[in-house]
Amino acid sequence: MDNGAWRVLPLRPLSGPNAGRVKSYRKQVEAGVLAPILLWWISGLDCYVILDGHDRLVAALAEDTEPPLLALSSVNAEQIARDTETALNNYSASAEAIERQVARHTPGAAEALAGVNRRLAENLRTIETRYGATRAWPLRGGTAGWNVLAAAQAPTWDLP
User: What is the reported pTM?
Assistant: First the structure.
């Protein structure tokens, strides 16, 4: 699901690019030794949240560098196994027919087989990086309880 929601959501306000810690991290960016930003995929928000590395992210962006990232997410091992088996079965059916054409030196068959191989690789990569649903439970106090917690954590945010 990608409905245009946030890609990365900070869990605290971001520091400015000239803040002390950010300046220190900017030197690490220049040296190529910046530690990765730790993200967690939250399916209900349709985005990542930053667990650790807010200032490192600001430093990398200030230096116009793609930051190193480490993402955590939940996965469903049974679904991955089923999807992998389906992808391999589809590949086998397609590849066997094309391999016979390659053996007969049919024009374009080798390129078609290469395309089938690339499609399998892409399908397997998609399967292994697909995210599972993040579990959540209702907050005691509902919306009012959320507003109290949010106001305590981020008093400058405009709450409904």
Answer: 0.60
